[in-house]
């Protein structure tokens, strides 16, 4: 027997999202949607051979934008892609063909259009106040989690 009561995953997810909404009423996405986007960001980054530190930087950019309330249902995928692209450009030594390959993969995975991505990349950069170089204290929690999850 067990002393822990069984909770259906759907109920747990609903409770988690409600708690998140109470804590951050200005954020227009659910916590489960944010986590799902981060899983996609990680998967495509790993497919493209990006280092865990690059993925961690993309997560920090993404979370900053989430907390600023800049994401909504319409732009969430584009913003996630822009964060990955900016992190890759700033932390990796990518050449033009590698950047093109990364954009192709991101376009395919997130089903977005590069014509929308490029202008948004500048908007994301402005929203981040051009602060692409991050202190180690912001990146390390994400980096450790990524490395532990393997």
Question: Can you tell me about this structure?
Answer:
- The radius of gyration is 16 Å and the shape is globular.
- The protein has 150 residues and is an all-alpha fold.
- Helix 4 runs antiparallel to helix 5.
- The model has no long low-confidence stretch (mean pLDDT 91).
- Helices cover 71% and strands 0% of the residues.
- It has helices spanning 9-23, 31-47, 52-67, 76-91, 96-110, 114-127, 136-149.
- InterPro entries: CABLES1/2 (IPR012388), Cyclin-like_dom (IPR013763), Cyclin-like_sf (IPR036915), Cyclin_N (IPR006671).
- Residues 39-121 form the Cyclin-like domain.
- Pfam families: Cyclin_N (PF00134).
- Belongs to the cyclin family.
Rough outline: globular
Average pLDDT, all residues: 91
Flag low-confidence runs.
none
| Spatial extent as radius of gyration | 16 Å
Largest sheet: none
Count of strand segments: 0
* SS element count, helices: 7
What are the secondary-structure elements, in order, as H or E? Answer: HHHHHHH
**Helix proportion of residues, in percent?**
over 70%
Regarding quaternary structure, what we see is single chain
Strand content: under 5%
By helix and strand content, what is the structural category? Answer: mainly alpha
Terminal Cα span = 33 Å
InterPro entries: CABLES1/2, Cyclin-like_dom, Cyclin-like_sf, Cyclin_N
Protein name: CDK5 and ABL1 enzyme substrate 2
Keywords: Cyclin
Domain Cyclin-like: 39-121
């Amino acid at each position: 027997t067990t002393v822990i009561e069984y909770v259906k995953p759907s109920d747990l997810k609903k409770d988690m999202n409600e708690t998140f909404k109470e804590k951050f009423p200005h954020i227009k996405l659910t916590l489960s949607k944010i986590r799902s986007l981060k899983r996609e960001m990680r998967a495509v980054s790993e497919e493209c051979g990006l280092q865990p530190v690059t993925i961690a930087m993309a997560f920090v950019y993404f979370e900053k934008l989430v907390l600023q309330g800049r994401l909504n249902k319409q732009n969430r995928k584009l913003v996630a892609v822009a964060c990955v692209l900016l992190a890759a450009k700033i932390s990796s030594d990518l050449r033009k063909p590698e950047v093109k390959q990364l954009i192709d993969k991101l376009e395919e995975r997130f089903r977005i259009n590069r014509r929308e991505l490029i202008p948004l990349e500048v908007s994301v950069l402005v929203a981040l106040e051009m602060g692409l170089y991050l202190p180690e204290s912001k990146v390390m929690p994400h980096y450790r989690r990524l490395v532990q999850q393997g």
